[in-house]
Amino acid sequence: MRIPTSVYRPIHALPDTLISQIAAGEVVERPASVVRELLDNALDAGATQLQLRLMAGGIRHIVIEDDGRGMPEDDLALSIHRHATSKIRSLDDLESVMTMGFRGEALAAIGSVSELRITSRTPHSETAMMLDASSGEMEPAARAVGTTVEVKELFFSTPARRKFLKSEATEFAHCVEAVRRHALARPDVGFAIWHGGKLQHQWRGADLASAKQPTAVDADEAGFFEGLGDAFKEVDQAQWDRRIADVMGAEFMEFSVPVDHQEAGVHVYGRAGMPTHSRNRADQQYCFVNGRYVREKTITHAARSAYEDVLHGHRQPVYVLYIEIDPQLVDVNVHPTKIEVRFRDGRIVHAAVRHALEKAIAPSRAASGALDGGDAADPAAHSSALVSGNIGWQGGASQQGLSFAADIAKTRQTLDALWGTGGAASRADAGQTADFQAQHMPASPYASFGVAGDTVRAVQESAQRWGEQAQASEAVAWPTEAAHDFASMQAQEWPLGKALAQLHGVYILAQNRLGLIIVDMHAAHERIVYERLKTLLHDASIPSQPLLIPATFVATALEMATAEKHADTLLALGLEVTALNASKLAVRSIPSELRAADPAELARSVLAELAQHEHTTVLQRARDEVLSTMACHGSVRANRQLTLEEMNALLRQMEATERSDQCNHGRPTWRQLSMSALDQLFLRGR
Question: Which residues are paired to 319 by β-bridges?
Fold first, then answer.
């Protein structure tokens, strides 16, 4: 093994060319980096149409043409100097940047590793001027108003860097991805990509002739946009959706839901893919902060947390999110590529993104009537309203979401079968479930936290009480008008239809207006039980259990700082963590529900997540893991025969339950086979 030796060398100033080449190592990684920087400049110049022309994946030739304001001759000469920019003038400008670029080093860095030429013309110029970056010479040229930047032979002056580039196809794909990100951020701008002289992609800009100016949101919703003049243009929602559909594809629009949520000065909007439209890789996750594409761990963690209950295994969600926040609360000067940002208070952003996505994906497609192959409009909405308990009961009582059809839900056998709250058979099943849980409950990722057994029993008792309340509510009479509404509805009007039969004790076959519905009864009931248990347990505050002897552990400097900074957050979570000395922490209390846990390990896990994301879901995930296991083993089992009434009751409950499209493990609970699909199976109409 060899180690480097130290040799004294005198300090000297580096030449400008080498300085620019060092900067290029940070800014220019590959042709896509050049494309990104030049697109930023074009958009800042007010371009509405952008043409990108590539040769050999951008390695040999990159040309970007825009119809922006252009640059006068003096500005054109300064544009290739390092740290020369028109975007900022002072520190105040830097702390509230709203432009795509601001560092003033992109053109200088690109020019140091390639052959760079810039041609530009302003509306007030009689002719365009062309600048050769290598010589600094300018000469008149023919061009309309706007700017053309031409980059040839990237990394010709640094051959070692060029060896690290991938194939032409790979580099071209990265260039296309860079344009896709800008296209999603700016639906008002048209983009066209040419490669080898052939048009590969084109996205037309939105027509803003009738758009409101100047703000992106109303002033009462985002006061920090006031006074920015025409820095923002409002784009109609239909235009946003059209651009997202053009870039992401029609399939994404079909299997995604709109997102629109405001919280604590943060506006989150866009579209979120349904859990069934997840992917193996996180390559379809786009997030924009004040119009800038970013990769930020707080946002990524928040999105993953929102999908936690509905994704199977390591599947990744798909989404396009736009976040508007006061520019002074975002630091964009974190990385030379400007793709990373830092929030002044990441917890606020984390909460806003998570709540926005949870609210968007919580309603099931069964409740909304958005079934595969069709759209159940008014009947589905009517059905959902009836199921969700919006019908008034005589005497002012309510059934809290257990509103089944009058001819189904009024039978005690239904609730006994579904919840095990009555009857000898139900009690026997409950006993078997308890025995199974006691002996075979699988180890969870939080098993080392040691969830207390009496916590499990407490939740089971809560579920038992809920079941008894549900039975008691059966005695409440249905209003005559409501009963008439239910009686008048046809089976096809229910989103999940009417049960027909049970297949091998595993699947429920139902008929709706679109065709055949197939339901995995165990997976469906598992989700219903799980959501009910979460509501019972999570609505309550988190009680804390003091430790007779505090648990101490040696902590890192980061853990010490995190415990001090987030002391109030830890207390709200039921954890009291204090410093004993400069390198040791003491855990003095933990949540009562996890009092059999290892306090030190629990505290370390929470502190690690707080340090990384300024937000933690460790305790919630631990509790949900227990509830998920209980729901899995406490729900209707396979090979259990159900009556038609019981099957219909389960279908109605699915329509009233959030996230009922997936079980607790992210697997689908039901599928739709349309009549056209069935006709194709039997070659009908051919």
Answer: 272, 285
